[in-house]
Amino acid sequence: MVRLVWKNKTDITPNIEFLKKEYSNNFNRFEHVSNLNHSQTQLFPINPESKYDKWRNKLFYGDNLEVSCYLLNFLEKKIDLIYIDPPFFSGVNYRMKIKDNDLNYDIIAYHDHWDKDIDSYLQMLYERIILFKKLLSNTGLIFIHLDWHASHYIKLILDEVFGQNRFINNITWHYYNKYSAAKKNLPRAHDDILVYSKSKNYTFNEIRIPRKKPKKQLKRKMVNGVLKNAKDENGHVMYRIVTDKKMDDVWKIPCMQPASKEWTGFPTQKHHDLLERIIQLGTNEGDIVADFFCGSGTSLVTAEKLNRKWIGCDISEYSIYLTRKRIINFQKNNQNRSKPFFPFDIYTDLTHERNKIIKTGFFKKELIIERK
Length: 372
Ligand SMILES: C[S@@+](CC[C@H](N)C(=O)[O-])C[C@H]1O[C@@H](n2cnc3c(N)ncnc32)[C@H](O)[C@@H]1O
What we know:
Blueprint: H1 16-22, E1 28-33, E2 39-45, E3 57-61, H2 64-75, E4 79-84, E5 94-100, E6 103-110, H3 118-135, E7 136-146, H4 151-162, E8 167-174, E9 190-197, E10 208-218, E11 220-223, E12 226-229, E13 239-246, E14 250-252, H5 272-282, E15 288-291, H6 298-305, E16 309-314, H7 317-333, E17 344-348, H8 352-359, E18 368-369
Parallel strand pairs: 3-16, 3-17, 4-7, 4-15, 8-14, 15-16
Antiparallel strand pairs: 1-2, 1-17, 5-6, 5-18, 7-9, 8-9, 10-13, 11-12
The structure holds S-adenosylmethionine (SAM).
């Protein structure tokens, strides 16, 4: 079998039991959001007894390696779908312009520079993919969103960790509305979403999408296990008009534009329609969806909308700020829906720096993010 090798490649599998113990008590709840009465509550760890029956959605502010090790103590083989949209090894740090009362400032929303060090990048994702596989249920799917910078390497890593025969699809997200200044190459207009399953037996719901124009098609029927043209009593073939078709692996969905009412200002925010397809394809109502690089929380808001349970994680306070705000606004704007919302809690490993951020009321501020 072909294997990818890089400098200092290390398989963390032998250390997982140690890491699980190491992080078993590190995360504490610092906010509980229930029925929109969100309040700062006392810090206390997740109660393992209440993890499953009285489900509460969870947003983690921290490094997803530590969060995954922590979660393995409670949710090993319990997550039904993992979607991740990690940094792509683009060589760029993504910035946002913020207005906080009278203060205007520029921040790095997230880092993707890496100083051309592909080895560290690959090791970072390799470790996490190993941990995510352990968290995934036996009927689960993982969706890894990348582009031309590294998807070819990560596919080999997925073949190694999940097995070549667990490859399901390489979805091409074709965004047709992104400006390109390219002169010496064709405009790059797609991302890759690699899909792998944990076992042969995985959740997969067929999705049908509308056709541009209705199509006249021969009516077919099964005769002794063979598909044949259906005929009327005079022996004539029969037709039907079809207005939809099976969704294939090339998805034409636009990039988010600042003019959209869903736009949060977070750079590289993904389109909610993309996440809607992914979640519908790989889960049913009540299933658990996790996104360990959640950014502005697109996947989590979509899970909320589709009545899935969710777990989110991000290392940046701006991501947690936006995700928290989006979920609260979504719940506020949909208070009359028939299905109740699960309450959600925000957890962190309370370092001195994070404690300072929380204590200044950062998450409840009214920040304005420039739309550019
Ligand atoms: C491409 S963005 C995700 C965008 C998101 N899909 C959306 O629609 O807004 C990648 C995110 O990964 C986060 N990230 C990078 N390294 C991380 C780590 N080790 N742990 C947790 N989050 C991380 C960054 O802070 C950033 O928000």
